[in-house]
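lol ok so funny story. i was supposed to be doing the assay writeup but got distracted and ended up predicting the structure for this chain instead. priorities right. anyway since i did it might as well share w the group, maybe its usefull for someone
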Amino acid sequence: MMTNFTDVRASINLTTRAGELIENRTLIDKPESELVMGDNVIYNQTEVREFEFVLNAKDPSRTRLHFEGFRCVWDCELAAVEEVEVTGDAIPWSDPNSWPNGLVPVEGDDVEIPPGVWIEFDIEETPLLHFIEVNGRLSFKNDPETPVDRTIHAYIVFVRQGELLIGDEEEPYNGIATIKLYGEPTD
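and the output, tada:
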């Protein structure tokens, strides 16, 4: 069975009457002959948003399924963000005055680009940051005459309500821009 959904779902959990959680992706990780009721897969891409699952009677312990949809499975207690248009010029990442605590972000920091603020990433490389949340604008500084390679290191970069700009059609970025993600932190 296939059903589409218009809202983003990070996950849909199916459990059997006995409380067995059926993992997502079972529909594509098993041979067709082994599929039993509840095996499923979520295609959560914006243009697809489909949930496909198996309905059959091959496993009598799976005669009843409980469906539970989740919009978010990580850091879900996010407060609403006020939408504020970015106005004015970019302020440099490297300037301590660009940051609320008066310090350029250091290893392990959580970094937020607040609504209405435009930070220009003007250093060659960040230390390994914990989390970057972009609610304003973060752009890579571009020097067409002297290209500079720039790298952001972070466990997670979340462009939540803002923009991440690395050049544009009229002025493509001339250096090498790298955003190296390290996955969910272990701490």
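The chain has a mean pLDDT of 86. Residues 91-181 form one domain.
back to the writeup now i swear
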